[in-house]
Amino acid sequence: MMRWLLGGLSACCIATACAAGASDTYDMIFREGSLDGLPEASVIQYSRMAREPGGTEDSDGTVRLTIGAHDNTELVLEEGGREGAIGSFPTSVGNPLIMYFMETAVRDVARLAGGSPFYVRNRVKEVLLEETPAEPVTARFEGREIAAKRFVLHPLEGDKNAARMQGYDTLTLEITVSDEVPGWYVALDARADGPEGAVYETRLDLTSAEEPEQ
Description:
The chain is of the alpha+beta class and 214 residues long. It has helices at 14-18, 24-29, 97-113, 117-129, and strands spanning 43-51, 59-67, 72-79, 82-90, 135-141, 144-153, 172-177, 185-194, 197-210.
């Protein structure tokens, strides 16, 4: 089962919490084998958008996934003309983009709300154990319409500490997936809404997928 682990960044293992009986929601969101069949040197790219209160930490960039040799997949963030390695992951486990997305949202919300990432991460794990029905949706990729499914999660809704979260208890995670695209993930969106709209948002959208020429 896929581990929520970002190289040297995070030491949290969702698999441990879910091993006794993961929900269908968890299995669909953290789908194993989502990179199966992609040849070595395949590249999948996702646009990245991040918005925070005040705009001082706003950024736009690209996350590039490359299938390497020996069961190894690399994630790299390109932003502001610079590149930074996110981490290396076993290709056989699945697409690590979801781990990067979840951990980014957890750390951002904890920092902005003045709370603990461990607390936010545990709430996310709890909501993943619940059965959340997927909404059938359509999406577009490479100029064509595709069938997809969207999961909408509210990990902090009704939390006993909501009053101390400075509005970030409105955190919503939207995960859009499809068998019709390489890598499974079409769009990943995390946002917290205030009275006048989103006060925080980080979003990843599939933009391209290329296989090496034979």
